[in-house]
Specification:
The complex is a heterodimer of chains A (110) and B (114). By secondary structure, chain A is mainly beta. Chain A is 0% helix and 58% strand. The chains are: A mainly beta (110), B mainly beta (114).
Chain lengths: 110, 114
Amino acid sequence: KQEVTQIPAALSVPEGENLVLNCSFTDSAIYNLQWFRQDPGKGLTSLLLIQSSQREQTSGRLNASLDKSSGRSTLYIAASQPGDSATYLCAVDYGQNFVFGPGTRLSVLP
Amino acid sequence: DGGITQSPKYLFRKEGQNVTLSCEQNLNHDAMYWYRQDPGQGLRLIYYSQIVNDFQKGDIAEGYSVSREKKESFPLTVTSAQKNPTAFYLCASSIVGVTNYGYTFGSGTRLTVV
């Protein structure tokens, strides 16, 4: 069964810290992996998409890496800000549909 | 601006009532999806459609129905057979056959049984 897990489930850090969110998947035959941000009561906003042939993608203070062989992806957030507070979800594209992780709820304290 | 529009934002359903959630996109995407989100859980796929007049069941299709009469529209009906419909419903779309594109999501509909 294709499963996606995310660790930690919740994280609280002071402003300015660099942090890492983890995503693991059981089936490595992926097309893409996509990281999303979700604010309370809102839809999902795409942050980064990594194709299966890529090792990492960067956008501003965000960097996502992918290691297909070990079934892992990490999202690195540099110099965190209170506005980064949200739930971060990773989603693995297996071709027919995406399988989502449960998310990491991030709180950045001023 | 292109995007996905879900309506209504909030919906209340009485016991035994069918309700329909709207999802419209102007991105010219081929595929559309419906997901259900419950607190503390990941998104679960209800139905998806990759082409007009065709759709497939996802992991939790029981108690739901869909139609895809137009490329732009993929409405979801929550029937009285769905015993626990209170949840946040998200619609998404993507381009079929393009591996570096990913999903675009709407802003969601929160359904509550009263």
